[in-house]
Amino acid sequence: MKRERLTLAFFIDALGWRLAREFGCFREIAPHAYRQRTVLGYSCAAQPTILTGLSPLGHGHWAMFERVERSELAVLSRFDVLPKRLSSHRRFRRRLLMWHRKRSGFTGYYNLYRVPLRFFREFDISEKRDIYAPRAFEAGVDSVFDVLARERVPYRVWNWKTGLDDALRELDDALVAGPPPRFVLLYTAAIDSLLHEHVSEPDVVADALEKLETKLSRAVAAARESYQEVDVLIFSDHGMAATANEFDLISAIDALGLRQQRDYLAFYDSTMARFWFETDRARQAITDLLQSIACGRVLSDDDLRREGVFFEDGRYGELVFLMDPGTVVIPSYMGARAPVGMHGYDPEHEDSDAIIMSNVPLSPAPTTIADTFGAMIRLCDLEAAT
């Protein structure tokens, strides 16, 4: 006997509005499409917004790294005494990350990338707990999983820790063996990884999307074998822009003759840089330099407030510099080589827009990624719980 109803949600990282419409993907299983404005920042800001329905200021997560007085990553700074060729090596960093994960017990997503180890005395991660589980955020902030758990709605979720093919196999088993879920969320970063390297190769992108659509269509068909009614959601957190230019912001700042951790502190992401100042001289010199750079702009406090990322305590930066779409900071603390595609630009840029698709009309229309939370809740008949 078929179970009554299932909400099947597929979270496809970096499936932008323009890309999805250009390639016409997923229209058979989710014909209703809505363009969504993303948030300023990266997935570490966008994913919590999707899962809570709140701005980064509301849920507290904007960047992966924030400045704190006492960092729980400080132990990593002890390894700064090692030769740079070792401490910066990818394999060493991967092992160091695994060691720290085990030592700290952190379940959220973080990476060490190319952040100088000495800076971990001051930089901590914002996502210490798995945001795909209940009680991930501060008191008073509910995610979709908090609501489902409180209302005792059975659900299954697969996040970044499980590869797509493994997750789909486990989903097939869950649909047959039970216990039967009422809500399923399956996240994949496969398209995000592909677009960073191949966004300008339409044949490669089309092939990847076609294969993904085939897999998700099979999952939907399998669900319909077990359930009388299956609601399908396919959504993303942001789009992807092709990169065209590089800018060596680190060298430009270093040329001022100031010293990190004495005069200022900086965090260099791929498309933005965040600064904290120890002296007025450093503040003035860095601000003047940034205002003279043509391929980016200093974001005002009003800009940050409008985007829902103005934190009074300055934990994510006292000054934020954002690159123009298509320009990347190279080198940065994220990498030494420019990716072919990048996100994290102005949310107003057309390539920043996310998408949500469904097999039923969604009302009200979800025009921002924060609205995805409400769409998931309503399809589970839990609107009153929000």
Structure description:
The protein has helices at 17-23, 43-52, 56-59, 84-87, 90-104, 144-150, 164-177, 190-198, 202-226, 249-254, 280-292, 301-306, 371-379; strands spanning 3-12, 32-36, 65-67, 123-125, 155-158, 183-188, 227-235, 241-242, 245-247, 264-268, 272-277, 296-299, 319-323, 327-329, 341-342, 354-358. The strands form five sheets. A six-stranded mixed sheet has the order 2-16-7-1-6-5, with helices on both faces. The protein is built from 13 helices and 16 strands. It folds into three domains: 3-57 and 135-242 and 347-385, 3-Layer(aba) Sandwich (Alkaline Phosphatase, subunit A); 65-125, no CATH class; 244-338, 2-Layer Sandwich (Gyrase A, domain 2). It is α/β, with parallel strands linked by helices and 386 residues long. Strand 10 and strand 11 (272-277) form a beta hairpin.
Structure characteristics:
6-stranded mixed beta sheet, 386 residues, 13 helices, Gyrase A, domain 2, alpha/beta, 4-stranded antiparallel beta sheet, Alkaline Phosphatase, subunit A
Summarize the structure.
The protein is α/β, with parallel strands linked by helices and 386 residues long. Helix content is 33%, strand content 19%.
Q: Strand fraction band?
A: 15-25%
State the name of the first-level CATH class of the largest domain: Alpha Beta
Distance between the termini: 32 Å
Work out the helix count: 13
The Cα radius of gyration reads 21 Å
Going by helix content, strand content and strand pairing, the class is alpha/beta
List low-confidence stretches. none
* Spatial arrangement of strands, main beta sheet: 2-16-7-1-6-5
Give the number of domains.
Answer: 3
- The CATH topology of the largest domain turns out to be Alkaline Phosphatase, subunit A
- For the report, how would you describe the main beta sheet? 6 strands, mixed
- Relevant CATH superfamily of the largest domain: Alkaline Phosphatase, subunit A
Name the CATH architecture of the largest domain: 3-Layer(aba) Sandwich
Number of strands: 16
Helicity, as a percent range:
25-40%
Give the topology string: H per helix, E per strand.
EHEHHEHHEHEHEHHEEEHEEHEHEEEEH
- Please, what is the average pLDDT? 96
**Globular, elongated, flat, extended or rod-shaped: what is the shape?**
globular
